[in-house]
Amino acid sequence: MDMTGEERIALSRETVWAALNDVDVLRQCIPGCQSLEKQSDNDMTAKVKLTIGPVSATFSGKVRLSDLDPPNGYRIAGEGSGGAAGYAKGHAVVRLVEDGPGTLLQYEAKADVGGKLAQLGGRLIDATARKLAGEFFRNFGTAVAPAAPEAEAKAEVAAAPAEPAKKGGLLRRWFKKRDASGGSEPST
Questions:
Q1: pLDDT tens, 116-132?
Q2: What range does the domain containing 166 cover?
Q3: b/e string for 19-32 if b means 16 or more Cβ within 10 A?
Q4: What CATH number has the domain bearing residue 76?
Q5: Phi, psi dihedrals of residue 57, rounded to the nearest 5°
Q6: Do residues 17 and 48 share a domain?
Q7: Contact yes or no for 81/19 (Cβ under 8 A)
Q8: For a tag site, which of 14, 32, 76, 157 has the least CB within 10 Å?
């Protein structure tokens, strides 16, 4: 199965490149990722739990980066075994293109499955693979994108110490209501 897509990220290519090579960022972005550990500059091991249709499995495997062209892109390839569920392997070419003040992350991916997974049918496998690829790149875009100015302003307001309530404010309002209603007690 072949997949292509893109994600606009409001950061420089260099910043996006650094995040694409940061194991902690990648771990957050991979759907179902239980672990991702760097073995060398270009090799990692991963453990990912996925559900594809009626089959749920934990895949253990290897990921390798190649054709590195900082900060323009690379090729990422991986393969994993899910025990009785079967195996999955694939690769993607990731390109980073300057897009005004930001970066356009483009990808072309190819994946293959075998075992029980292959028996599920091409449509289900293709749909799930597209969903997972899209989810990864959306998660990545969200994880590395700077916070929106509105969100930053809300965070500042939330972090500011609350002003103490004016002494007697509640009682004053109650008495004003009582006086406005002709001196009778407010109904409950």
A1: 888 887 788 888 888 88
A2: 151-180
A3: bbbeeebbeebbee
A4: 3.30.530.20
A5: -155, 155
A6: yes
A7: no
A8: 157
Burial of 157 (0-12, 13-18, 19+ CB in 10 A): exposed
- Residue 100 domain-assigned (yes or no): yes
Please write the tens of the pLDDT for every residue from 11-22.
999 999 999 999
> Domain for residue 188, yes or no?
no
Q: What's the CA gap between 89 and 84, in Å, rounded?
A: 15
Q: Rounded distance, CA 151 to CA 155, Å? A: 6
Q: What is the pTM of this model?
A: 0.72
| DSSP codes joined into one string, 22-83 | -HHHHHHHSTTEEEEEESSSSEEEEEEEEEETTEEEEEEEEEEEEEEETTTEEEEEEEEE-G
Count, residues in the chain: 188
Tokens encoding 26: 């990648």
